[in-house]
Amino acid sequence: MKKKQIDKLLSEAKKYREKGDFANVLALLHQIVESGSDNLIYRYLLAATYLEAGREDEAKKYAAEIITEESDSKEALELSGLICKVEWLNLLNNDTLKAQKCFDEAIRFFNKALDIDANFHNARMSLINLYREYVVRNQPVRQEYYTEIEKHCTYMLANRDTNRDSLSRKEKERIYFNWYASVSSFLKFVLFSQHKYKEIIPVVENYVNFATMANKKVDLFWFINEYGTVYKAYYLSGDMIGLEKFKKELQEKYPDHNFNESFKYFEKYMDTP
């Protein structure tokens, strides 16, 4: 099949996908693949569409075929991890042993993709989101998982969009909502859960600085939870000198606000970040 014909079919498939008509999307993609134009990209689109349509078995089949032919396909490895994640979520209430196996498989696939390319941020974000889903559903959380989450969040903050501070405000805003806010928030939670209170402070300070640059209008109430986390971090680490300095700086930054009630509230809910 010629490229012009393929492009036409892909354009039609896109329109059907926007309507949620996966049957027609799949029919068109199969037409491309079965015509002899079996570029791995088209099989990847086929596998991804099967997953989106809720047909994990077919998605797994085509993703596995790609990996068999091209073992270093980081995209197919990430997709296989996403398929395992869906299977894990589907099994949670029915078979916990099989669910855990799917969870472990998802981690394995994401990590294999990252072994190929440490800066394949889609796979790292998929892995972080997998752990987030796990933490929401399971308490207490294994220490090894906290260690992995901390590692991956820290890596992403240090290595993704490294020029973000020099970008336009609009680009900063895109980065903030796309991944920065959620990764910073999750790292803050994980550090708090491990009682690594002093390590939380620079994470929150960096978050406040970037959020201020990224968003048109920010005020005290935008960051009140973050300031509360810093307050608790100083308090719980026993750094009373640092705490008093932080309180003074906060009052100087917002001279019209009386923080006495806020400080009482922070101390009342000291067990949450």
**What class, by secondary structure content?**
mainly alpha
The description of the largest β-sheet is:
none
Q: H/E order of the elements? A: HHHHHHHHHHHHH
Number of helices: 13
CA radius of gyration? 23 Å
Q: What amount of the residues lies in strands?
A: under 5%
Low-pLDDT sequence parts: none
The residue fraction in helices comes out at over 70%
Q: Count the strands? A: 0
Name the shape in a single word: elongated
How confident overall, as mean pLDDT? Answer: 94
Distance between the termini: 57 Å
Describe the structure.
With 273 residues, this protein is mainly α. The protein has a domain at 166-273. 76% of the residues lie in helices and 0% in strands. The protein is elongated, with a radius of gyration of 23 Å.
Name a few traits of the molecule.
273 residues; mainly alpha; 13 helices; elongated
How would you summarize the topology of this molecule?
Blueprint: H1 3-18, H2 22-34, H3 40-52, H4 56-69, H5 74-91, H6 96-116, H7 121-137, H8 143-159, H9 169-193, H10 197-214, H11 224-236, H12 240-253, H13 260-268
Helix pairs in contact: 1-2, 2-3, 3-4, 3-5, 4-5, 5-6, 5-7, 6-7, 7-8, 8-9, 9-10, 10-11, 11-12, 11-13
